Amino acid sequence: MEGAKISLLITKDLVKWFGDTHAVDHVNFTVKESEVLALIGSNGAGKTTLVNLISTKQSVHGRIKAGIARSFQLVNLFDQLTARDNVALTIFSREGKIANLVALAASDSAVWDEAHEILKAFGLEAKARTLAGGVSQGERKLLDVAVAYALRPKLLFLDEPTSGVSTREKAPIMDTVTSVVRSTGISAAIIEHDMDVVFNYSDRIVAMHQGAILADGPPDEIRRNETVITNLIGTTEAR
Amino acid sequence: MDVLLIHLLNSLLYASVLFLIAGGLSLIYGVMRIVNLAHGNIYAFGAYVTAWVIGSVVANASVPVWLVLLPVGAVATAILGAILEPTLLRPFYKRAEEYQLLCTFGLLMILEDLMRFLWGPYPLSASALFESFGSFSVGESIYPTYNFLVIGVGAAAAIFLWAFIYRTKFGVVLRATSQNMRMASALGVNVNRVFIEAFTLGCFMAGLGGAIIVPSQSAVLGMGVDALVLAFIVVVIGGLGSLEGALVGALIVGFVREAGITWFAEIELAVLYLIAALVLLVRPAGLFGRP
Amino acid sequence: MSVPAPAPRTTASATRPLRIAVPIAVLLALVPLVLPPYSSILLAYGLVMAIGALGFNLLLGYTGLLSFGHSAYFGVGAYAVALMVKYLRVTSMELFLVGAIVASVLITALFGVVCVRYTRIFFGILTLALSQVLWSLAFKFFWVTGGTDGLRVPTPSLFAGLVTGAGDKIAFMSHAYYYYVLITFCVCVALMWVIVNSPFGMALQAIRDNETRAEFVGVQIWRYRWVAFLVSGVFTGLAGALWVPLNGLTTPDIMHWTFSGEIVFMTVLGGFRSFAGPIIGAIVFNYLKTYAVGYTVYWQLLLGAVLVGLVLSLPTGIVGTASRLVARFQGRS
To answer: Among B248, B282, C72, C332, which one is most buried in terms of CB atoms within 10 A?
Structure first.
């Protein structure tokens, strides 16, 4: 049911060159409120470049104020801190409390309570006190998303959240992520190669090819789109 | 005019030695991605060995003998390198960088005292060779002829290295390993052997730098750390991992230092740091470096 | 707050460390009463070094920056005191400490701006190079610094002049001054403990573990490293200031890279991945050095060899290895 949804993010004619190639070619990209969007395209289509452009367009603080956060394709965590610390640290930063050097972090129970809630929402509460470097790959992926989520963004970019994870684990990860996203009403833009994930979890799909947007619409429409099928679905990895 | 020429020659002299040291450091980093903090002391070790051999052991021999034995310091450091790499460096490749730095720093301390243990706390000289070359006139001044040997060796080393790395099969292997170690290994390159060879070559260069300069100035304790800091400035300017960078950086440092000594004796080192800082600000990877 | 889930026991709570620290502080306080003067003076040196190592490890263990030039800040603290004696005729220890802190702040702020932008190896050599610059300046400006002869520092007056150095110097050093060092040590330990367990401390560890993510989470890498550098340098400068009345004299040696090497060594010996490691390492090292110096002149060789050995086989140092042994023992019983 489209219609009254507000646009959260609009890019106009976004362009990025890598040498002679248009990595991103005049892209007009929109994300609406409270939607889960999948960004698909073969390698080199410009998806990650687009996300990088958007997520690094401002300074560190500009980004956070604008409500954008992202997770990473290659998991990026603080491996020698516990899962709980990873999330709590993000909250401290978000709240502007991170510069404090003469107060014990332990004393701010509001932060730790919220960290536990977030871990719980992502199903990671049992691993709260485990070092981030010591949890399983699937849990690391979830933690990566949880850390981005802890910034309480309005728009969450997820870069291949199920890559490197066994097929069996993909569904639980996506279930968790999408349930958190939908229950808090934020938007998520997910770069994905796995078409099952894409079609099962997204409200809208944006297909990119050679730096430009090929198609943009709900899954059913995309599924039937000839150009998309020829250029993308045919060429992505077979199941 | 002749004063200018002398300054030029001095700069080239300094640059030659620096190129050998920094080039060795860069080569090792380029192939193995490690920085050996003890590299300066390897240079010093080469200087000491050569000074000892031609200054003491065969002190009564003749110039040709001395010349033949001049590179002995480089051979010694090459052997040292070949022993050190598999024993003290290899265990650290897969570990956090701090451990590697700590280990090579420990090595620096060991070498410093080893040199003191072997040769005592006083400078060791081999000046007879230096003096035997005499000097020639440059306009109204005179200039030691021996220095041409140093400059010559430096230039020859640069050419030889370039040929070695870009024209030989080993050079190809070296470059391949430095660009993509995993791939090279998958293609059948014995990476361990390449590492030993690269490290040995790097140490040989540093030792050669020490060997050729020692007749003109003695080997003293502490010369290693001084050289390390200077080599660092060279690779900051030129780019760590690049031989062209080491050459250009060495020339720049050589000229700046000569200018600094002449006009601002007190702050000569500060001027060098200033340049290094400037380069780091403008082009953090150095002039020729890979970011 | 209801407590259904385990109460968020966060990175640290104050009670457990206090249960270990207080008895130790009491034991330390008893030393002058129970042991001969020489022992307290020796231990005072150890405590002073511990403060320096504690500062150093804020950078290494917590921020992931290995400095090879910390002798510079120790020297700045020591020379600040010596110069205050020479030019301002100051004798108050409190003023010495203030002067040392001010001098350390200035120098580390400046050096920090230069060093902190860069990655590990460049950072390391930059710190080394800068400390060598200071060392050579101490020689060059010999009319100010006394050159190789150094500068003498007489016994200071403590606690705003209440306790003076008049009378038996040994008794003063082994009692009054010892307690002064001990109190400062306890304050420094407490302060550093708060800092590493603060949100700022967490940010440092985040930067250490993953710069990219730390930045994405909102931490300004450069700025936080700089502040860590500053705090680290000030602690070490303070150590230098406390050291110089004990030693009676300061010379350029303490700014030489070999002393930086000792600071690195003692921290790795104790274990740089723990809070108490540097403290234990410094105190143990102090004893080792005192007794070993009599045996061999090849001190660097010994240090270097042990450092390499430590890094190869006991990277977690005394504290880390001890914890592992204790854990294994507890696991068995």
So the answer is: C72
Residues B31/B197, Cβ–Cβ less than 8 Å: no
Cα–Cα distances (Å) from C3 to A113, B153, C8, C329, in that order, read 11, 77, 9, 32
Q: Is residue C248 left, alpha or beta, with left meaning phi > 0 and alpha meaning psi from -120 to 50? A: left
Q: Does C222 touch chain B (CB under 8 A)?
A: no
- Domain assignment present for C307: no
Asked if A109 has any chain C CB less than 8 Å from its own CB, the reply is: yes
Q: Which residues of B touch C129 (CB under 8 A)?
A: 229, 232-233, 273
pLDDT higher than 60, residue A3: no
Backbone angles phi, psi at A57, to 5 degrees: -65, -35
pLDDT score, position C8? 36
Asked, for residue C329, whether it belongs to a domain, the answer is no
Asked if the model's pLDDT at residue A231 lies above 90, the reply is no
Nearest C-alpha in C relative to B231: C125
pLDDT in tens, B189-211: 888 888 999 999 999 999 999 99
| Alpha carbon of residue B108 to chain centroid | 15
Q: Give A68's strand partners.
A: A155
- Contact call for A98 and C199, based on CB within 8 A: yes
- Separation between Cα atoms, residue B16 and residue B151, nearest integer Å: 6
Does C301 contact B105 at a Cβ distance shorter than 8 Å?
no
Residue of C63, C125, C137, C289 to mutate for B, most B C-beta atoms under 10 A: C125
Q: How many domains is chain C built from?
A: 1
- What residues make up the domain containing C59? 15-254
Tokens of C181: 């060092």
Average pLDDT, chain C: 89
Total beta-carbon pairs less than 8 A apart between chain B and chain C? 97
Beta bridge partners of B144: B135
The verdict on B106 touching C (C-beta cutoff 8 Å) is yes
Helices and strands (H and E) in chain A: how many: 9, 8
Residue C154 belongs to some domain of the structure: yes
Interface with chain B: mutation pick from C67, C121, C260, C296, highest number of B CBs within 10 Å: C121
Asked whether residue C279 is assigned to any structural domain, the reply reads no
For range C163-176, the mean pLDDT: 82
Main-chain dihedrals φ then ψ at residue A29, nearest 5 degrees: -125, 130
Higher per-residue pLDDT: A234 or A157: A157
Q: Could you tell me if A79 lies within 8 Å of chain C, comparing CB atoms?
A: yes
Q: Count Cβ atoms below 10 Å from residue C164 Cβ, excluding itself.
A: 15
CB B170 within 8 A of CB B178: no
B219 forms bridges with which residues in the sheet?
B124
More confident residue, C120 or C89: C89
Separation CA B138–CA B151 (nearest Å): 16
Per-position b or e across C257-288, b if 16+ CB within 10 A of its CB? bbbbbbbbbbbbbbbbbbbbbbbbbbbbbbeb
- With beta carbons under 8 A apart, name residues in chain B contacting C120: 97-98, 101
Q: State yes or no: pLDDT of B89 exceeds 50.
A: yes
Residues of C in contact with B37 (CB under 8 A): 68, 124-125
Q: Which chains touch A (3 or more CB pairs under 8 A)?
A: C
User: Which runs of consecutive H residues, i.e. helices, occur in C58-198?
Assistant: 71-88, 93-115, 120-140, 142-145, 169-171, 178-196
3-state helix, strand, coil in chain C (%, to 5): 75, 0, 20
Average per-residue pLDDT in chain A? 82
Please count the CA atoms within 13 angstroms of the CA of A147 that sit on its side-chain side.
Answer: 33
B37 to C125: CB separation less than 8 angstroms, yes or no:
yes
In one-letter notation, the amino acid at residue A202 is S
